[in-house]
Amino acid sequence: MGEVDPSFILPIEHRPQHSTLEAEAIPLIDLSILISPNPNSVDRLMESLIADIGDACKNWGFFQVINHGVPLESRRNLEIAGAKFFGLSEEEKKRVSKDEVNPVGYYNREHTKNVRDWKEVFDFLVQSPTLIPVSHEPDDKSLKELSNRWPENPPELREACEIYAGEVQKLAYKLLELISMSLGLQAKRLNGFFKHQTTYVRLNHYSPCPTPDLVLGVGRHKDSGALTIVAQDDVGGLEVKRKTDGEWFRVKPTPNAYVVNIGDIIQVWSNEKYESVEHRAVVNSERDRFTIPFFLHPAHYTMVEPLEELTDKQHPAKYKAYNWGKFYAARKRGNFRKLEVENIQISHFRVSGKSG
Ligand SMILES: O=C(O)CCC(=O)C(=O)O
Ligand SMILES: [Fe+2]
User: Fold this and answer.
1) pLDDT confidence band for 177 (50 / 70 / 90)
2) Bridge pairing between strands 28-30 and 62-66
3) Which residue in 18, 70, 129, 96 sits closest to 292, CA to CA?
4) Least buried of 2, 10, 130, 270, by fewest C-beta within 10 Å?
């Protein structure tokens, strides 16, 4: 293992098995009806699309979408500018380093469950500035404004990021509406939570690793937001834990598709009709891999709790309400230091205590 820093090395039981099955299995959903509806068949096709989305959310918590309306050019421009940025010297990238006070920009020391991830990232906010709580402490009501930090090089990165985020945001709302309808709710039932969203986009770079069996690009985790929409390149490495048997499945890269997954917030809103599913990113010894997740997050003041339309006497709420901004601030602390205690989880808010 030579030069690999021990902080990256996983406990034996969490090391990736490279016999992992390749999943055609996560559903592939065609959204073309949203872009060019045919008036003669739109109702029937919409009904079947909503049913497919509902099944994918229930059975996998993950699916891929094609014909999603995000212009390919906006994605390519960002992929190219992002690769140029990651190709700069460490010193230059660190001029836009993020830290505990200003958590946007460049970072290469992220930890998942106290093990260092084999990756470097560049994060930017979809709304800049974005308001968030100063601390995770419940009694501290102070807020701070976060603003994006742009590197000098490459100069085109900023515009590429902004255009891309605007395009994926439209897709995020379409998906949110489909998910809402699949739960039997009004299409726009969930949109209001995102008026002052804390959404951000991450550029991930996983460089080749001499010991891919001992480390992970991103350790196993569930996304804590509402929805995640990921552009992955053709290298592959994203793995999803299948709900039925806990097997890890590789998500096969599909050209120009997006991988979509349910986060913890939709698990809570839906009162566990849908569940957020564990996933991870493996690395390899030969090729650089680039991915771009878009993390759809609500306003910091959102109290996350099961939606009242989905609860009644027979189906009581499975979670107590929690404040999104405080939850996220507590979660993020674990990225900057090794914590002595378990990081905060939605299971801590579960009424009868099943692990989430
Ligand atoms: O890069 C990937 O394939 C997945 C990244 C991911 O799951 C995350 O950043 O939350
Ligand atoms: Fe993730």
Assistant:
1) very high
2) parallel
3) 70
4) 2
280 CA: nearest ligand 1 atom? 7
Say which ligand is closest to the CA of 118. 1
**204: Cβ below 6 Å to ligand 1?**
yes
pLDDT at position 13 is 83
The count of residues in the chain is 356
Task: Evaluate: CB of 238 within 6 angstroms of ligand 1.
Answer: yes
Condensed to tens digits (0 to 9), the pLDDT of residues 291-341 reads: 999 999 999 999 999 999 999 999 999 999 999 999 999 888 766 555 555
**Which ligand is in closest contact with the Cα of 203?**
1
Is domain 6-349 classified as CATH 1.20.1640.10? no
Q: For residues 105 and 94, what is the distance between their CA atoms, to the nearest angstrom?
A: 9
DSSP of 269-318: HTTTSS----EEE---SS--EEEEEEEE--BTT-EE---GGG--SSS--S
Counting Cβ atoms within 10 Å, is residue 348 exposed (0-12), middle (13-18) or buried (19+)? middle
Mean pLDDT of the chain: 92
Residue 21 has pLDDT above 50, yes or no: yes
- The closest alpha carbon to 276, from 51, 29, 58, belongs to 58
For atom 1 of ligand 1, the residue with the nearest CA is: 291
Residue type, 98: K
Q: Determine the average pLDDT of the residues in 153-176.
A: 98
Q: Is the pLDDT of residue 3 over 80?
A: no
Check whether 355 has a pLDDT greater than 50. no
Output the furthest CA–CA distance in the chain (Å, rounded): 64
Ligand 1 pocket residue status of 223, Cβ below 6 Å: yes
User: Which residue's alpha carbon is at the smallest distance from atom 9 of ligand 1?
Assistant: 293
CA–centroid distance, residue 11 to ligand 1 (Å)? 20
